[in-house]
Amino acid sequence: xxxxKNGKIFTLDNGKILYSDILIKNGKIQAIDSNIxxxxxxxxxxxxxxxxxxxxxxxxxxxxxxxxxxxxxNDADEKYSNTIANMRTIDGVYYKDEYFKHAAxxxxxxxxxxxxxxxxxxxxxxxxxxxxxxxxxxVISSYIDxxxxxxxxxxxxxxxxxxxxxxxxxxxxxIRENLYNARLYLAKKENDKICLDNYNSIYESLIPVLxxxxxxxxxxxxxxxxxxxxxxxxxxxxxxxxxxxxxxYEAVEEITRRNIPVILSSCLDDDSSIELQNRRLDTAKFLSxxxxxxxxxxxxxxxxxxxxxxxxxxxxxxxMSYEEALKSITINPxxxxxxxxxxxxxxxxxxxxxxxxxxxxxxxxxxxxxxIINGNVVYER
Length: 381
Prior knowledge:
- By secondary structure, this protein is α/β, with parallel strands linked by helices.
- The chain folds into two domains: 1-54 and 344-381, Urease, subunit C, domain 1, CATH 2.30.40; 56-339, Metal-dependent hydrolases (TIM Barrel, Alpha-Beta Barrel).
- The protein is built from eleven helices and 16 strands.
- The two termini are 21 Å apart.
């Protein structure tokens, strides 16, 4: 058992700020109250340091593209394959990559890892704790979303082979055709008409998407791609998440009406790509003010994962409210992936994923004193 005493707690749960103690037992928050005392518990006096839930990075290639990357250290893509929905990202993650520890030291306790940008329908993303006693215990979900890309990336990599898709209409056709065929496949399966002879692993992997058990996370920056992603959602009645979403400010009414979560990429990334020509620094402010569930992500290694908090600071500098900024890397991504019953805020019964600061989290000179994951101190300054 562990007691964190005398903390200024930003619960990120209904805007509450508490001056209290936190009791941790078996990796969970057992109590948040004043003057907690339990015989035999280890006590850490925080001296009114600021306490927050651990940060969540919603879209990364952490452990797929390794630090000091070489050819053998990049497992993020299957080049020239349109659809790899039957592949599991978790099978390619190198959990000993040093950036998992860097992430924890910067307050990031959970990451969503997904395949890269080169496949139209990518692999099954996973959600992991950044530090754990064993690899298996790090896994929150082995299939948290299905990654998808509508952009220049898939068509660029196919040009050498001159195979579909070589255009945006080809990309949309690949998505639509696979979802349509998977829907037919599901109907046959429900009528016991699928056997070894007509089993299809890709369509099997798309069934959770069609049943709205898993969202389709669609990387789309330009407004034309964002609107096509929304059209796919409507056509197949599926849940989607918009990822990167640089021009999402132009589709705010469509996004709001359908209650679509948005994950914005870090403004620390350069905007040299044609995909990012119309990116605005105040998009996070614009979306969050309109009630859109907005998260910020580094898309590591586009921006390294330990700069997640700095990415949020830039959003505040460009008008995003203080509270919404903190939510964008805690409770908002937890809600986006349906994990808010486990992580994203400090509440009794949730995982004890906690970050302790020596001052205001959004001030440049503030340092992280401690990171706790599943009740274990994994970083201490």
